[in-house]
Design brief:
heterotrimer; B: 293 residues; mainly alpha; MetI-like fold; 15 helices; C: MetI-like fold; 70% helix; 0% strand
Chain lengths: 427, 293, 314
């Protein structure tokens, strides 16, 4: 009895496998060059990107773009495994913080000469984007996305607490005293929130403050930590005063609650990026980040640009991939994508176009502050392969201060030691 | 056929034949606690996008958004993903039932040279985290696809199936259960001239239906929810499985919780069906042991 | 263990010595290998080979980026003793395992015992237990992050209502690991229940009934008859839960990411961080092999202890 059962089973298995095998695959026949693009766009962005890819296919008859939507957070694991297997995608969307390490992959195509062509108009990209795409004078990607940080505040809570809304002249002292006034222990209302999962999200908020205080992350030749400085202490002390002394900060240790609480009227203001605006459900305003009085650095922000990275799968596909990313990041496409999605324009010519700014801001009020704020992105994170280690050390220092477990100076000393050790043993 | 078990249950005389209600008083709250995640999922799947972002979390959506389900399912070719998941899971389950019961029986009952060592080696494969073995496994699957059969290679469903056809987990589970079966039953059959294979299929397996059903349900679940390996191996949308498809609701910065949860509920239904199907065998085998006594 | 149980006759080993099996022992080698070979070949190719490969990797310097992976001998291993974070990770992993494994087994056994009876609608209850496994980890993570939220969470609200001190939970370096224990016990309870339920089906009702007629109390019956018969399943659970606990990753990745201040950094999270965030794949492989040895030793001990206490029918 079992024998006939096994026979039937084998037939079933074979049939299923064949049924599935018949549907999969797809070749690059008919003389077209097929390129694969791995990207993490979903929802509105996903649709806008697919539309662009279709437009490209229609206007470039020799090239066929095949898109694979894969979650950005897992992109690196997938790409690295594929690189090891010798089958990387032709184009991948990769986070900017990975750039110094991505640059080490031999199959990553050097785009330095490509960006010098007139068609690319490289200097039309914001300087922060160009800096992140360039590692050791080698261009390893084309800017895919740019963000920055600004204040998003709850107008109702400000009014109730009798606090004047943030102005472009705000200092961190103004921010602190507003946060204090917005805090009410009885109703569990907090002045502001800070992402405290020790991730790069915790770190880049602080890096912007460090720059505003006139500090630097590393020294000029990237050999030593420079953040253990008066400026660094000033930035770290601001966090300590607000979180520990005033208790006006909702310390979001899992970096998952601040938006829900902001919408519930439990948090007065956030320092966050433009991607959060579409989630806000309360009457809100947007203002650039505060500055430190007396610091020549003035108002700054930080950009987290991401890149389109091209991989080498033979000259024909490299050429096709270069054509695609050049087209994709050209002004008309940047404009179309920004208008459709609300993502900040990656090009200056688009970001300074009044009609673009107006259309985007009409769709999502406050976006124009972020677009203008792109000019406050004056610096980029250091392009060193050990940056993940530096980020981890700073992340833990920041969380230690926010939780009251470390003094600002101890935190800086610890992070600085770890950074110097990483740099000296480095890459 | 269940006479022996129902008619004589004096172990808890107080509850015999009376309304079973006292136990429901324990079981209902217990079940509720266990079901909280599922209830949460279902509630979230019926909320508006704004409700999913509220605090405190919404416990009863103002008006259930049934359209979340068609919306979620139309966001990607989910029926295709489900078919892929089903093919992979079914083949893996059936193969595990066959291969692991053979091996599990040998480890439980047969004295063969190297048994202890081989069992230890198989167990050892469970002890190295996947994060480290992932890339070598990828390279092996790629090699198999190029040199053995292309349907087992990268970007094919075979790549999701082949590495999971037999698992040390399944062998270990069944070995432990086979060891509890009275050996006298087998010996009687062996005297009658039944082969080892015959003993396994005619005596041991019918007595092990709860264990087999458990293995089937657990293997199905493992395959159905598998995420990281398919993520690494599959590069074509038409070959994606359900968990990969569900990431379409998780953007870099914002997650569509209502759609994600609707998709999750959709993905959960086949797992519940499988478990309901497995339930039958739990009951049947109670009858089987009853017959024996 | 066997002294008081009426199963002793069932379990008596002398039956095997009567020669029946002896007579066939010559062919048992062949039959045994024939039975295990299909599964063994598959596991060797897709399970063992990658493990040996990663052992090789642990003697190399590899960043996963450059193709050059020079052999560096024991360099990766020599780094380990000086790695303070890894020491912490080992500590956290062991504390976690020691709490998680027994808690899951006890809760699972109690629920399985409660579910193992003829009650109308019992299959619905059993399915509920199974559902806890089927629901993906991310749902559990979301719910626990809300339940244990320090300012607004349900747990603190209840404690406050009872006049008890509240906790900072996932925001506290001293408490976060315990929240993860609670969360994973909840997530794995269904697994333990399903395994114990299946095992309970093999416990002959007649034995329990006979003992009950003799006047034994329900707890005595459970302790002397049921529990010994469940011991193979208990060993299975102890081993399997330990192997998984020592390789905890998903729940940490989805909630605390090892924080706050490394307080939930467990070994596999740390080696993931080393491999895919710090680009030290060779070092990560070495860490994996240290963990492998730890798991191996613990599993070995479990089997040795198990062989003494586990009640098998053979």
């Amino acid at each position: 009895m079992w024998r006939s059962g096994r026979g039937a089973l084998a037939v079933l298995v074979a049939a299923l496998l064949l049924a599935v095998a018949g549907c999969g695959g797809g070749g690059s026949s008919s003389g077209k060059t097929q390129i694969t693009v791995w990207e993490g766009y979903t929802d509105v962005e996903g649709n806008a990107f697919k539309k662009l890819a279709n437009e490209f296919d229609a206007s470039h008859k020799g090239i066929d773009v095949k898109i694979l939507e894969t979650n950005n957070d897992y992109a690196l694991q997938k790409v690295l495994t594929a690189v090891r297997g010798g089958t990387p995608p032709d184009v991948a969307y990769l986070y900017g913080s990975w750039a110094p390490n991505v640059a080490k992959i031999p199959s990553v195509v050097d785009l330095t000469s490509t960006v010098k062509t007139k068609a690319v108009n490289w200097n039309d990209f914001y300087s922060g984007e160009r800096a992140v795409a360039t590692v050791n004078n080698k261009v390893i990607g084309m800017p895919a996305l740019v963000d920055n940080l600004a204040i998003v505040y709850n107008k109702v809570l400000f009014q109730k607490a009798g606090v004047a809304p943030p102005t472009p002249q705000w200092t961190w002292d103004d921010f602190r005293s507003a946060a204090q006034k917005l805090t009410d222990a009885a109703t569990k209302q907090f002045g502001t929130s800070y992402p405290a999962d020790a991730s790069e999200d915790s770190v880049w908020h602080w890096e912007a403050m460090l720059w505003e205080a006139g500090g630097q992350i590393l020294n000029s030749d990237n050999t030593k930590a420079a953040f253990d400085s008066p400026a660094g202490l000033k930035a770290m002390t601001t966090l300590k005063q607000m979180a520990v002394d005033d208790k006006s900060v909702y310390v979001d240790t899992t970096n998952s609650k601040y938006m829900d609480l902001f919408n519930a009227g439990k948090i007065g203001m956030l320092v966050t990026g433009p991607w959060d605006l579409s989630s806000v459900q309360v009457p809100y305003g947007v203002q650039i980040m505060p500055a430190y009085p007396g610091s020549s650095a003035g108002h700054q922000s930080i950009a987290g640009p991401d890149n389109w990275v091209v991989f080498n799968n033979g000259s024909a596909r490299v050429a096709a991939a270069k054509t695609f990313v050049t087209w994709l990041t050209a002004a008309p496409q940047v404009k179309e994508f920004s208008l459709a999605t609300g993502d900040l324009p990656t090009r200056i010519s688009v970001g300074t176009d009044p009609s673009v700014i107006k259309q985007m801001n009409d769709k999502l009020p406050g976006l124009k502050v972020y677009i203008h704020n792109l000019s406050n992105v004056k610096q980029a994170r250091p392009q060193v392969p050990v940056y993940p280690k530096i980020s981890e050390a700073l992340g833990n220092a920041i969380v230690g201060v926010l939780l009251g477990k470390l003094s600002p100076q101890d935190a800086l000393t610890q992070a600085s030691d770890a950074t110097n050790q990483a740099l000296s043993s480095g890459s | 056929m269940t006479t022996s078990t129902t008619a004589t249950a004096p172990a808890e005389p107080r509850f015999r034949f009376t309304r079973p209600s006292p136990w429901h008083l324990v079981l209902i709250p217990l079940t509720f606690i266990l079901l909280v995640p599922l209830i949460w999922m279902v509630i979230t799947s019926l909320e508006t996008e704004a409700e999913t972002r509220q605090f405190p979390p919404v416990l009863l959506p103002a008006s259930p958004q049934w359209t979340n389900y068609p919306d979620a399912l139309s966001a990607a070719p989910f029926l295709r993903f489900m078919l892929n998941s089903a093919v992979v899971a079914l083949v893996v389950v059936v193969a595990n039932l066959v291969l692991c019961s053979l091996a599990g029986y040998a480890f439980a009952r047969l004295r063969f040279l190297g048994r202890g060592a081989l069992f230890a080696v198989l167990m050892a494969t469970l002890m190295v985290p996947f994060q480290v073995t992932m890339i070598p496994e990828f390279l092996i699957v790629k090699w198999v696809g190029l040199n053995v059969w292309d349907q087992l290679g990268i970007d094919h469903l075979g790549a999701l199936i082949a590495p999971n056809l037999a698992t040390a987990f399944g062998i270990f589970l069944l070995r432990q259960f086979f060891l509890t079966i009275p050996v006298e039953l087998e010996e009687a059959a062996r005297i009658d001239g039944t082969s080892r294979l015959g003993v396994l299929f005619k005596i041991v397996l019918p007595l092990s239906l709860p264990a087999m059903a458990t293995l089937a349900a657990l293997t199905f679940l493992d395959s159905w929810n598998s995420f990281l390996w398919p993520l690494i191996v599959i590069n074509t949308e038409s070959n994606m499985t359900l968990p990969l498809g569900l990431t379409t609701f998780q953007g870099s910065h914002a997650t569509h919780w209502e759609l994600l949860m609707a998709g999750n509920v959709f993905s959960l239904l086949p797992m519940l069906l499988v478990f309901f199907a497995a339930q039958r065998y739990f009951v049947r085998s109670v009858a089987a042991t009853g017959l024996k006594g | 263990m066997a002294s008081a149980t009426p199963t002793a006759s069932n379990a008596a080993p002398p039956a095997r010595r009567t020669g029946l099996l002896r007579r066939f022992s010559g062919s048992e080698h062949a039959v045994g290998w024939a039975f295990v070979t299909p599964a063994t070949v598959l596991i060797a190719v897709f399970g063992l080979l990658p493990i040996l490969w990663s052992l090789l990797l642990s003697f190399q310097k590899s960043d996963l980026l450059t193709p050059e992976t020079p052999f560096v001998g024991l360099d990766n291993y020599k780094q380990i003793p000086g790695d303070a974070t890894f020491r912490l990770a080992i500590e956290h992993t062991i504390v976690y395992t020691v709490l998680f494994v027994p808690a899951t087994m006890i809760v699972g056994l109690l629920i399985a015992a409660a579910l193992n009876r003829k009650v109308r609608g019992i299959s619905i209850y059993r399915t509920a237990a199974y559902v806890t496994m089927a629901v993906s980890t991310i749902n559990e993570a979301i719910i626990f992050m809300w339940l244990f939220e320090p300012s607004f969470g349900v747990v603190n609200a209840v404690l406050n209502g009872l006049g008890l001190p509240q906790g900072q939970w996932l925001s506290s370096p001293g408490q976060a690991l315990y929240v993860i224990v609670a969360m994973t016990v909840w997530g794995w309870t269904g697994f333990a229940v399903v395994i114990y339920l299946a095992a309970l089906q093999g416990v002959p009702k007649e034995l329990q009934e006979a003992a009950a007629i003799d006047g034994a109390k329900p707890f005595t019956i459970f302790r002397t008859i049921t529990f010994p018969l469940l011991s193979p399943a208990t060993l299975f659970l102890a081993v399997w839960l330990s192997i998984n606990a020592l390789q905890l990753f998903d729940e940490v990745y989805l909630t605390t990411r090892g924080g706050p201040l490394h307080s939930t950094t467990v070994v596999v999270y740390y080696l993931f961080d080393q491999a895919f965030q710090q680009f030290n794949a060779g070092y990560a492989a070495a860490l994996a092999y240290v963990l492998f040895l730890v798991i191996l030793v613990i599993t070995f001990i479990q089997f040795r202890v198990g062989n003494r206490f586990v009640h098998y029918n053979r």
